[in-house]
Amino acid sequence: xxxxxxxxxxxxxxxxxxxxxxxxxxxxxxxxxxxxxxxxxxxxxxxxxxxxxxxxxxxxxxxxxxxxxxxxxxxxxxxxxxxxxxxxxxxxxxxxxxxxxxxxxxxxxxxxxxxxxxxxxxxxxxxxxxxxxxxx
Length: 136
Fold this sequence. Notes:
- This protein has helices at about 5-20, 25-30, 35-60, 70-100, 120-135, and strands at about 65, 70.
- The protein is mainly alpha-helical.
- The chain has a domain at about 35-100.
């Protein structure tokens, strides 16, 4: 069921307030695409994982590369698979770190409507909640 016009306006107002109050959080939960470094890191991890899989399988038939009973090439392949998987998985959290690294000063813009440090959207919402609670 679609939202009414009033509900859409309220939702847009809440979104604007969220962007003003905490732009870092708002950008992290928005549906934006991954940054280029995070995407590149995920692709590199996948390539290293596939290369490790090939080494793991290829190490079994080569008896010359065994150290005793241990297939060295297969062990190296397994370690490469592990490293590639870690590289790809850790790229998920790299998006926020990349944004912090390229974001500049890290200071949030001040909201002129907020009444100082504790003001803003959350302060207004807390005040409304207190008034409603006191009315009952």
